[in-house]
Amino acid sequence: MRRPSLLASLVAGFTLTAVSAAAVSPALAEPPGETEARVDDSEPTPDAGTDPAADLPAYIEHYSRPFVIDGTELKLTQKYYWGRLFHPEKKDRMWGAGVLMASFVLASQKRAIQGDVAEDDSPERSEFFKRAQQLGGRGIVPAAAVLMYLGGSAFRSYQTKQTGVMLGESLFLTGILCVAGQWVLSEDRPNEGGRLHPFQGIGHGVSGHTATAAAISGILSRQYLQIGPDDGRVARTFKRIGKGFAYGAPVVVAFGRVNDQQHFAYSTLLGLGIGFWTSNVVADAHGLYMESGRPRLRPTSVAPIVGDHGEAGIGARWEF
């Protein structure tokens, strides 16, 4: 006999997780600028040592170069991430409590849910979810990170290159928490009996496929899908749709893992929670660094210049 209420609870839990993750406040990242600064004579000249925006063009130009990575930002991201994990903010505590409570409820009904899913399965649905699961496996997400880094380096696109770096950081940190969770909740797969044996090797109590797929959501959302004040109606619509795909695709992966009897529902919810949270924290760290944590680059030379329309200004040049 089917239990539609359990399936409805599963759908509601996954959907709520994705929606709440997508609602996280945007990062504080500044938009990329040009590689040369020009200041009108009527405005005061900003000081590169005190104004965060003053050296942004030079910073963007320098770190758009191939294979040049800001090691200071990497260190700050690690420090910020582990600080948020062990000294969580209020929103982190609320997020963690919500995910753990929902996972506990799903765990208490894990075999009933798997039975309902198996009873309601069909060849068409099984084939669809098998294809969807590939997002979290076969190296697709790591390959995307590498391609974005190499593409950004080749075409001198700081945003694309930095997105690749951030994806790599998110995958690495997500993997650490995921493996730790798989050790604590060492469990056999549902199709192998589903026996739970905590702290006895690396099991399947946290879905790695789901966590990997969710590890890209916050990064892509913050880097490309934030709605700006200059966006028109069409741009806003497409960005909202894009954000829906960014957070919805990992949910489809989670359903696929449950439908394929590879994980219990609570395991995929834990994977979603880890991946969504990690990707947003990495994006937070980048935004905060660009806002106030960047090394201040001072120009090596300053000279008066004349613009295209004859206006006077000041030009600055940086060398590395």
Write a concise keyword list for the protein shown above.
three-stranded antiparallel beta sheet; mainly alpha; 320 residues
Plain-language structure description:
The chain is mostly helical. The protein has one domain (4-30, 71-293). It has helices at 4-22, 56-62, 71-86, 90-108, 110-119, 123-132, 140-154, 158-184, 208-214, 217-224, 233-259, 265-293; strands at 37-40, 301-306, 312-317. Strand 2 (301-306) and strand 3 (312-317) form a beta hairpin. The longest helix is centred in the last third of the chain and has 29 residues, at 265-293. It is elongated.
Provide the fold topology:
Elements: H1 4-22, E1 37-40, H2 56-62, H3 71-86, H4 90-108, H5 110-119, H6 123-132, H7 140-154, H8 158-184, H9 208-214, H10 217-224, H11 233-259, H12 265-293, E2 301-306, E3 312-317
Antiparallel strand pairs: 1-3, 2-3
Helix pairs in contact: 1-4, 1-5, 1-11, 1-12, 3-12, 4-12, 6-11, 7-8, 8-12, 9-11, 9-12, 10-11, 10-12, 11-12
Write a short abstract of this structure:
By secondary structure, the protein is mainly α.
Our Rg estimate from Cα atoms comes to 23 Å
**What is the number of helices?**
12
Helix content: 55-70%
The end-to-end span amounts to: 70 Å
Strand content: 5-15%
Largest sheet: 3 strands, antiparallel
Q: Would you tell me the structural class of the helices and strands?
A: mainly alpha
